[in-house]
Amino acid sequence: MTSVLTVANLLTILRLVLIPVFVTAIFYNRFLIALAVFFIAALTDGLDGLVARAFNQKTPLGEILDPMADKLLLVTSFIVLTLPGYTILPPLPFWLTITVISRDLFIVLGALVINMTTGLNRFPPSIPGKLNTLVQVVTVVTFLTANVLHNQLDWQILRNILNPIYFLTLAMAIISGLHYIHHVNRSLNRQ
Predict the structure, then answer these.
(1) Number of structural domains the chain divides into
(2) I want to staple 11 with a disulfide (CB 3.0 to 4.6 A). Which of 44, 67, 104, 125 is the partner?
(3) Is residue 37 part of a domain?
(4) 43-100 pLDDT tens trace
(5) pTM of the predicted model, to two decimals?
(6) In a domain, 71, yes or no
């Protein structure tokens, strides 16, 4: 049991526990609390990997739980922040959320089919995939910050900040998705 309950895995579990806290803060329009909770959750993502490597705490559970926690946090964030009426500013664009979710769904289903048909089960994260996650985190943090500062900044200024970030997120989702297809194709050809 102790090999499962490592500090790294506990940090990952904390990230999962923070997701409903984040959603509740959004529901009650407590954007500063939501921003702090999201920031702490994102911080645990970096810390769990660092702790796992530094203290040799890599576990099979952690290899499954960590990416699942990342995806649940980001997908939940995008869905909740896209719902009308839950944000002070206009919500995240629907097209952006659909793109983010579709990319992840495509990758998960693709990995499942490949695993079932070929037995290939190692899909290490790629640099474009990590950049995609980073850009999504920046998008959520920027959007939450804009909701916190909506009284201090003009809507036009906020729109000039948010719109480029939305298109950068869209571009990274497409680029990292295409890179994933290319990477998996090379792996299958090698096998």
Answers:
(1) 1
(2) 44
(3) no
(4) 998 888 788 778 777 877 777 888 889 999 999 999 999 999 999 999 999 999 999 9
(5) 0.89
(6) yes
